[in-house]
Amino acid sequence: SDLRTGTRSESALALAQRLLAEAGGLRGLADRSVEQLCERRGIGPAKALQLHAALELGRRMARAERDAQPIIRSPKDVASLLMEDLRYFRQEHFVVLFLNTKNKVVGRETISVGTLNSAVVHPREVFRAAVSRSAASIVCAHNHPSGDPTPSPEDIALTHRLAECGRLIGIDVLDHVIIGERSFVSMKERGEL
């Protein structure tokens, strides 16, 4: 017999409700071993394994979803998310992270790939992408192929222009992070935003 059929004396739904009640909810149920599940009335080894596998699958899906939508709380979060991708490029890549109202990353896009020392970026491209993804806010980032993340005057001017455009259309620019070899600079922390 499998989990969907229940037992002669108890429907599958009633069995599921009883298991959840005995375990104190899904979290408690997920913490039970196959052996512990087998101790319950109406649950044999086959049902216990099936239930255990389903709960593990749910746990993995939740973890994958959480990993796929990291939360940005600081410039360090931005750097950890992007540094390995950006630090080895020989050209500047300008990347935008699109965030929802809870600062979860709901998308990411490379807006521009430039030359050795500059990426030409137009605010309209940045915000067109942000609007199409219904972003509540954005974080911009780009790499410096030289390895030195010190902002250029152009980087500072672009940050100010992006912040101004964001204010006009109601999409906050939370930060502009410049990625170097093993270090980064946050325009927000420098007081440019």
As a percent range, the share of strand residues is: 15-25%
Number of helices: 7
Q: Name the average pLDDT.
A: 85
- The helix content is 40-55%
Strand order of the largest sheet: 2-1-3-4-5
The radius of gyration computed from the alpha-carbon positions, rounded to a whole number of angstroms, is 25 Å
Coarse shape? elongated
Kindly, what is the distance between the CA atoms of the first and last residues, rounded to a whole number of angstroms?
62 Å
Order of helices and strands: HHHHHEEHEHEE
Instruction: Specify the structural class.
Output: alpha+beta
Largest sheet: 5 strands, mixed
Low-pLDDT segments? none
What is the number of strand segments?
5
